[in-house]
């Protein structure tokens, strides 16, 4: 290993960060988001209808909220066990979908997958950022979600091209995830660094009050971001249907995930250099532009650009907000990361409900996309007020 690669490995805590990223790739990229790519295939295989598929997606969103609430008081010392458990349960859920074809059973499984995906997000973040003390590992950690989306999308595309049905593809995803968790397991046993402390030592009551305000503001911003991104993430395959000719829509979903991988490093770098306030505002504004593009222009280029911009910002929001939340966590009595994830979950539940109501009345997603854009702009305005004591 040369000097530059050694510095990179030390800065980003390569081993532990990759292990935590694998947990997110399994729990989020595979266990949660692979359903987006497999949903149309499960319908063509007559395993799901549009109605039962919508119920399964809704159960997943509700499960995500429930998972965040279940671990609201989780401690950093619990995080390793939770990370491993959620990876294993996610694999079991994927494997179950290879054999179970009853619509209501699938709804239950997707609800469970939503629960463990939220817990995996919180557990991996707690383990790496707080238990291990590797704050600079955040971009590598959260790039695991995008990497999981890309890898699962390509496995779905390859399986479909090889003539596999959706059940066999779920089995392929489960086996691939099992390989990942076995590779990650040794690094998850790493010993923590001495814990770093933020804010409370020598802080004044005024600073603590500022921290409480920032904590509440971050939670609200994060919930609005969950609402803003989920409409594109949920309806992108429907938006692009027929617009790309012979191109498989799953490849556009892969572009969505591909944008998320390097974006985590970009947004982390901006946060370190310019602070949370600037980077979060910019992230949300760019995301708003990406969300509304398909409503302004119905060309293939617009859809691809939207996928790249939203994919390139939604995990950037996480990369910026989660470390910022860690810095103000001392000001609240609950697990701040769990509170953020719960708010995100509420946004993800409300978003599709609003989109469905607007679509029912107008038979177009234009109103939904403009609503999502407005929500993200509101979040950006709130981000302007993030307190200076926690800018960096």
TrEMBL record:
<feature type="transmembrane region" description="Helical">
    <location>
        <begin position="82"/>
        <end position="101"/>
    </location>
</feature>
<feature type="transmembrane region" description="Helical">
    <location>
        <begin position="168"/>
        <end position="190"/>
    </location>
</feature>
<feature type="transmembrane region" description="Helical">
    <location>
        <begin position="302"/>
        <end position="325"/>
    </location>
</feature>
<keyword id="KW-0472">Membrane</keyword>
<keyword id="KW-0812">Transmembrane</keyword>
<feature type="transmembrane region" description="Helical">
    <location>
        <begin position="47"/>
        <end position="70"/>
    </location>
</feature>
<feature type="transmembrane region" description="Helical">
    <location>
        <begin position="12"/>
        <end position="35"/>
    </location>
</feature>
<feature type="transmembrane region" description="Helical">
    <location>
        <begin position="337"/>
        <end position="359"/>
    </location>
</feature>
<dbReference type="InterPro" id="IPR036259">
    <property type="entry name" value="MFS_trans_sf"/>
</dbReference>
<feature type="transmembrane region" description="Helical">
    <location>
        <begin position="219"/>
        <end position="240"/>
    </location>
</feature>
<protein>
    <submittedName>
        <fullName>MFS transporter</fullName>
    </submittedName>
</protein>
<keyword id="KW-1133">Transmembrane helix</keyword>
<dbReference type="Pfam" id="PF06779">
    <property type="entry name" value="MFS_4"/>
</dbReference>
<feature type="transmembrane region" description="Helical">
    <location>
        <begin position="252"/>
        <end position="270"/>
    </location>
</feature>
<feature type="transmembrane region" description="Helical">
    <location>
        <begin position="365"/>
        <end position="386"/>
    </location>
</feature>
<feature type="transmembrane region" description="Helical">
    <location>
        <begin position="140"/>
        <end position="162"/>
    </location>
</feature>
<feature type="transmembrane region" description="Helical">
    <location>
        <begin position="107"/>
        <end position="128"/>
    </location>
</feature>
<dbReference type="InterPro" id="IPR010645">
    <property type="entry name" value="MFS_4"/>
</dbReference>
<feature type="transmembrane region" description="Helical">
    <location>
        <begin position="277"/>
        <end position="296"/>
    </location>
</feature>
<dbReference type="GO" id="GO:0005886">
    <property type="term" value="C:plasma membrane"/>
</dbReference>
């Amino acid at each position: 290993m040369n000097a530059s690669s050694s510095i990179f490995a030390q800065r980003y805590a390569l081993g532990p960060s990759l292990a935590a990223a694998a947990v997110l790739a399994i729990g989020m990229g595979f266990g949660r988001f692979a359903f987006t790519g497999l949903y149309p295939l499960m319908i063509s295989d007559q395993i799901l209808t549009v109605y039962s598929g919508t119920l399964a997606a809704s159960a997943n969103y509700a499960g995500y909220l429930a998972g965040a609430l279940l671990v609201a008081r989780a401690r950093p010392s619990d995080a390793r066990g939770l990370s491993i458990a959620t990876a294993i349960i996610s694999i079991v859920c994927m494997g179950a979908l290879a054999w179970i074809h009853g619509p209501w059973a699938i709804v239950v499984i997707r609800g469970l997958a939503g629960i463990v995906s939220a817990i995996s997000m919180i557990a991996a973040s707690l383990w790496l950022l707080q238990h291990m003390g590797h704050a600079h590992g955040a971009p590598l950690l959260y790039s695991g979600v995008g990497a999981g989306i890309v890898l699962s999308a390509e496995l779905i595309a390859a399986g479909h091209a090889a003539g596999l049905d959706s059940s066999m593809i779920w089995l392929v995803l489960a086996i691939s995830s099992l390989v990942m968790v076995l590779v990650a397991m040794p690094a998850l046993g790493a010993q923590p660094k001495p814990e770093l402390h933020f804010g409370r030592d020598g802080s004044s009551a005024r600073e603590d009050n500022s921290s409480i305000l920032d904590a509440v503001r971050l939670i609200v911003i994060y919930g609005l971001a969950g609402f803003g991104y989920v409409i594109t993430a949920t309806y992108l395959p429907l938006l692009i249907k027929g617009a790309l000719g012979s191109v498989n829509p799953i490849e556009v979903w892969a572009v969505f995930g591909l944008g998320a991988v390097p974006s985590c490093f970009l947004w982390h770098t901006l946060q370190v250099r310019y602070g949370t306030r600037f980077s979060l505002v910019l992230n949300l504004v760019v995301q708003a532009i990406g969300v509304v593009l398909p409503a302004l222009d119905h060309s293939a280029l617009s859809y691809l650009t939207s996928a790249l911009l939203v994919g390139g910002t939604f995990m950037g929001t996480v990369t910026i907000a989660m470390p910022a939340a860690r810095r103000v966590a001392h000001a609240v009595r609950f697990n701040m990361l769990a509170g953020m994830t719960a708010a995100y979950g509420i946004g993800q539940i409300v978003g599709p409900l609003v989109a469905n109501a607007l679509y029912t009345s107008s038979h177009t997603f234009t109103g939904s996309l403009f609503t999502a854009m407005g929500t993200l702009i509101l979040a950006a305005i709130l981000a302007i007020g993030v307190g200076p004591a926690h800018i960096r």
